[in-house]
Fold this protein.
Amino acid sequence: MIRIEKLKKKYRDNTALDIPELSIPKSQCFGLVGNNGAGKTTMFRILLDLVRATKGRVLVDEEDVSKGEQWKTKVGAFLDEHMLLSYLTPEEYFAALRKIYRLSEQDLMLHLEKFKDFFNDEVLGKNKYIRDLSKGNIKKVGIAAAMLGHPEAVLLDEPFENLDPSSQNRLKRLILNERETNLVTFLISSHDLNHVTELCDRIVLLEKGRIVKDLQERDDMSAILNEYFNVT
Ligand SMILES: Nc1ncnc2c1ncn2[C@@H]1O[C@H](COP(=O)(O)OP(=O)(O)OP(=O)(O)O)[C@@H](O)[C@H]1O
């Protein structure tokens, strides 16, 4: 579903990303890990055409994201709160997205119903602007928005950061459920090795913009990652 070809991103002399080839098939749960500055966010930003690559390209179903528009109907994402309209309440924001995605009110209601436990009665009906919610609750709005509109692929940058433990577990269940019932492809970057190894059937480890490991055997992932990150 997603293919990276000869991708390079340079900031002056600093090579932030250098990926000769990477293919992510439909309905894969793809985890992206690496130390600070490894290039995870850069890769997501190029995938969403928020940043232009220095060389190479990213294809979504064979369409170059820097040239076409069709992929935008297939990909949902939440990278950070800049992607939200934080002067709106969550209800106003979801209503605006409903119109953009041409969904019925019933569709939106059913979607938000799926997130009821995740929202934990702290997101909807509070009469608060998104900007006034806690960091964790802002993240919840962004994640629910990323999954709205029946996307075929969803990119989440550090989705577990700032979430309380119950919310982290609820999010894992939501992701697994979306993947199983709607065959959604997930790309998830995280510093939480336990969550990614539990969720993902493939984990790519970036170091200084390069892929140093592409792990696809679930049994070995934890040990290899713990050794790399020196977790005891
Ligand atoms: N706008 C920019 N201008 C200059 N350098 C940048 C810019 N954005 C990213 N970089 C550099 O690109 C490299 C990769 O950064 P990136 O944010 O993608 O890493 P990351 O893996 O997401 O890190 P973290 O885990 O800290 O979020 C870093 O060396 C960073 O300093």
User: Anything to note?
Assistant: The chain has a mean pLDDT of 96.
